[in-house]
Write a structure and sequence with these properties.
Elements lengths: L3 H5 L5 E4 L7 H11 L3 E6 L3 H15 L3 E5 L5 H15 L4 E4 L14 H27 L5 E6 L14 H22 L3 E8 L10 H9 L9 H13 L7 E4 L19
Parallel strand pairs: 1-2, 1-4, 2-3, 4-5, 5-6, 6-7
Helix pairs in contact: 2-3, 2-8, 4-5, 5-6
C-alpha cells in the first residue's frame, strides 16, 4: 500500500477536516491524519476553545502545523472560504474530510420546513460546496487529492424520528458518486469517496440498557469508536485505486436487522 507521501507527492500532505473542533469523530480524524504526517486545517463553529486545545495537542505530539478555521456552514460562503484559507496558508490541499453535521431526533409530525432546510444546508450543501472548492484546487495539482464525505449507514435502512436527517445524508451518497465522476474527468488523480459510519458514538441520552441493545444490533456485538472511522479515512486516502464508493464502517449493522431496535445512534 502506498503511503500518504507517495500518493500526494509531498512530505507533508495538507488536510482540512470540517467539524473537527469538538472532541468527536471529526477531531479523531484530524488527529489521526496529523499522526500520519499531515498538516491540519481544523474547523470549528461553536467549539473554538476545544479546537485551540486540539491544535496545541497536535503540535506537541506530532509537530504538526495547524490552522484553525471557523464559521457556520449554514452560511453558504463558509465552506468555500475554509478551503481558500487552507490553500492560502499551506499553498495546497491534498485531503478534505467533510465531517461536520447536525443530528437530533424529531418526530415527523414536528419537522418544520426550516428544520428540513437546516439539515440540507449543513449536511449536504456545505459538503458539496467544500468538495467543489477543494476539488477545483486539486485539479491544478499534479498529485490531485482525496475528498472523503461522511454519510450514515442508516440511509440504506432508516429508523424512526430522523425523517429530515436521513434524506440529507442520502444526498451525500449521491453527491459522492457525482463528484467522483466530475473531478476525475478533470484530473484522474482526484478521488471522492464516502464513509457510512454505524454506531460509533452514542447520543448522550442513551442509557446503558439502550447501549447494550445497540451493541447487540451489530454483528461484532459492540459499539465502535471514532478511531474506526479515522482508520477508514486513512485507507481511502492511501488506496489510490478506490474511487466513488460509499463504504459502511458499521460492525455489520447494515446487513443485520435484529427485531425491535429503533434506537437513535449518533455517529457525529
Amino acid at each position: 500500500m502506498n503511503s500518504l507521501f507517495d500518493v500526494y507527492q509531498t512530505k507533508t500532505p495538507v488536510a482540512l477536516v470540517t467539524g473537527s473542533g469538538a472532541p468527536r469523530v471529526g477531531q479523531a480524524i484530524a488527529k489521526h491524519l496529523a499522526y500520519l504526517g499531515c498538516s491540519i486545517g481544523l474547523h470549528a463553529h461553536e467549539s473554538s476553545d476545544a479546537a485551540e486545545v486540539a491544535a496545541l495537542e497536535l503540535q506537541d505530539l506530532y509537530g504538526s502545523e495547524v490552522l484553525i478555521t471557523s464559521g457556520s456552514l449554514q452560511e453558504h460562503a463558509t465552506a468555500e472560504r475554509l478551503v481558500r484559507e487552507v490553500v492560502e496558508h499551506f499553498g495546497r490541499i491534498d485531503i478534505l474530510v467533510n465531517s461536520a453535521a447536525i443530528w437530533f431526533p424529531t418526530s415527523i409530525e414536528d419537522i418544520t420546513p426550516k428544520e428540513l432546510v437546516d439539515y440540507f444546508e449543513i449536511n449536504t450543501m456545505s459538503s458539496w460546496l467544500a468538495a467543489r472548492a477543494a476539488g477545483l484546487q486539486m485539479v491544478q495539482q499534479e498529485s490531485g487529492g482525496s475528498i472523503i464525505n461522511i454519510s450514515d449507514w442508516a440511509t440504506d435502512r432508516p429508523y424512526l424520528d430522523h425523517a429530515a436527517y436521513f434524506p440529507s445524508k442520502g444526498g451525500v451518497d449521491a453527491m459522492t458518486r457525482s463528484l467522483a465522476v466530475e473531478l476525475a474527468h478533470r484530473n484522474s488523480r482526484i478521488r471522492v469517496n464516502c464513509i457510512k459510519p454505524g454506531p460509533v458514538l452514542l447520543a448522550d441520552e442513551v442509557d446503558q440498557q439502550q447501549a447494550d441493545r445497540i451493541a447487540n444490533s451489530t454483528l461484532v456485538k459492540r459499539v465502535g469508536t471514532a478511531e474506526h472511522i479515522a482508520h477508514a479515512v486513512q485507507f481511502l486516502c492511501e488506496n489510490d485505486f478506490v474511487n466513488g464508493i460509499a463504504m459502511p464502517v458499521d460492525g455489520g449493522r447494515t446487513i443485520y436487522a435484529p427485531d425491535g431496535l429503533q434506537v437513535g445512534m449518533n455517529t457525529g
